[in-house]
Design a protein that fits this description.
single chain; 161 residues; mainly beta; Immunoglobulin-like; five-stranded antiparallel β-sheet; 9 strands; 7% helix; 51% strand; elongated; disordered N terminus
Amino acid sequence: MGLSSGRAFPSNSMHWTGLFDSCAIAGRKQSSRRKLMADNYRITVTTRTVFIPDQSDEGAERFVFAYTINIANHGQIPVQLISRRWVIIDANQRVQEVRGLGVVGAQPLLRPGEQFEYTSGTAIATPVGSMRGSYQMVAEDGSPFEAEIPEFILAVPRVLH
C-alpha cells in the first residue's frame, strides 16, 4: 500500500495524546519483581489514525486506514522490538489476526528516553472497526516481555457521533 515508514527520535520531539503506559503488562512476569520490572520496562504506545478515501471503495466494502504508532521507552534499560501481533475487528465482528517480525521492516532498539514512530495501514470491510495488539520485546538484560497496544478506533469521518 505504500503507507509504511519508520524512524527513531529523541523523546522530547513530539507531544502525543492518548498515552498508555504498558509497564503493568510487563510487571506481570513475577510479583516479587514487579517494582523492578515496572521501573526497567516502561513502554508507552500511542496511536493516530486517518481514513484514506482515495484507496477505499465503499461499494466493494473496502475501507483503508493509515495508523501512526509511537513507541517510547520510559524505562531504565534499552529494549528491542522483536515482533508484533494485531487483532483487527470490523463492525461485522470479522476478525483479522496479523503476526510478524518487527514493524515496517525494522526491529528498533530503543534506549531509555528514545522513541520510534512508524506509519502503516490496514483495510477493513466496514466504515468502522478497531485494532489492538502487542509488541514482543526483549530487554538488554535478556528478559522478554510484551508491550500492549491499546485498542483504537478506525472510523470514516462523520460516521461516529
